[in-house]
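Supplementary Methods. Inverse-folding protocol.

Structures were first reduced to a discrete structure-token string of length 149. This string, shown here, constituted the complete conditioning input.
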């Protein structure tokens, strides 16, 4: 788990508690090099999936971040209720687990979301498609989507 600020691979856990969502554990970590604190969510019983970003850096696959990204693309689109978003994420995560790989490129992840939005909601599809190809992280992607509104 690399520090999001300096990329240092070692951190210590300063707090752990169960997250209500998704059967996971929320951990607060502190980078051993620069002291930055960050939060990770680890699903029980699963090894973490790593997302490789376009710039070569990586981060742990996060259902919460993906959910947020999809929610923004789906803002004010009644065709996609919350359960549907969770279903999309479940299906993506299951597909990733089934490949047996523990790494995925952010572009592939974006493609997987698009496959599922296609035919479901054109506006959400276009919102997602118009930015995902350039995004380095879900955060940047979120900012880009906010800019579209
Ligand atoms: Zn650091």
């Amino acid at each position: 788990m690399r520090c999001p600020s300096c990329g240092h691979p070692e951190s210590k856990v300063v707090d752990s508690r169960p997250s209500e969502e998704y059967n996971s554990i929320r951990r607060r970590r502190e980078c051993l090099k620069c002291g930055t604190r960050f939060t990770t969510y680890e699903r029980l019983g699963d090894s973490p999936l790593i997302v490789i970003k376009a710039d070569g850096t990586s981060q742990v696959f996060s259902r919460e971040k993906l959910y947020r990204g999809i929610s923004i693309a789906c803002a004010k689109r009644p065709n996609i209720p919350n359960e549907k978003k969770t279903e999309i994420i479940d299906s993506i995560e299951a597909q990733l687990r089934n490949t047996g790989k523990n790494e995925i490129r952010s572009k592939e992840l974006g493609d997987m979301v698009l496959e599922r939005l296609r035919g479901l909601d054109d506006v959400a599809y276009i919102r997602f498609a118009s930015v995902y190809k350039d995004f380095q992280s879900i955060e940047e992607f979120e900012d880009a989507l906010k800019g579209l509104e």
